[in-house]
Amino acid sequence: MESLKIILACITGAIVYGIIYDQFTARICVEYFTVFHPPVFGTQSTTLLTFGWGIIETWWVGTFLGVLLAVSSRAGSRPKLPAAALLGPIGKLLVVMAACSLLAGLTAFLLAQRGLLAPPYWVASRLAPSAYARFMADSWAHNTSYASGFIGAVVLCVVTHWRRIRERD
After folding, report:
1. Is the pLDDT of residue 168 over 70?
2. Which residue intervals of 2-116 are DSSP H helices?
3. For residue 45, what is the DSSP state?
4. What's the CA angle centered on 94, arms 42 and 146, to 5 degrees?
5. What is the CA radius of gyration of the chain?
């Protein structure tokens, strides 16, 4: 039952993060969602789009982390960690992801505004030039969020495993 709690905590955390995160990024460049995502929801409402995409884009990441974290915290003969012991580390991972994403988005925005970064042709051909910097900010922010999340998931699992080893000794 604890493994299921861990998985559900990760899925819930990822979805909440995704919805909140997309509320910000959609307001930076709504075209990131309306032009470069398939029309799944049949709405142009920024708020509704971000709720939908916040769930679609993150539930599976939460599942991935949840399964890995459940195994690293519960498998084997070492002392097992309950779900409650992992809520803080999961929250810290989400904060680190947001910080990395913010830094990447700001960097891309500034580089694009200065003409040092341009969107690829397939993007530029579908956007007004005035949206380039905002699009690049969203693109870099989203990619960085995923990358830092995957790296952070691996780190969190390793740290969790080491925590169990130390508790046994």
Report:
1. no
2. 2-28, 31-34, 46-56, 59-74, 87-113
3. -
4. 60
5. 18
**In the 8-state DSSP scheme, what is residue 83?**
G
Per residue, the 3-state secondary structure of 120-152, as one string, reads CHHHHCCCCHHHHHHHHHHHHHHHHHHHHHHHH
Whether 22 contacts 48, CB under 8 Å: no
pLDDT for the residue 54: 93
Q: For residue range 44-95, what is the model confidence (pLDDT) as tens digits?
A: 888 998 999 999 999 999 999 999 999 999 999 899 999 999 999 999 999 9
φ and ψ at 62, to 5 degrees? Answer: -65, -40
Spatial separation of the C-alpha atoms in residues 25 and 19, rounded to whole Å: 10
Query: Apex CA 30: angle with CA 137 and CA 99, to 5°?
Result: 40
CB-based contact 55:142 (threshold 8 Å): no
Nearest CA to 9 among 84, 93, 92, 75?
84
**pLDDT tens by residue, 103-144:** 999 999 999 999 999 999 988 999 999 999 999 999 999 999
Contact indicator for 66, 6 with CB cutoff of 8 Å: yes
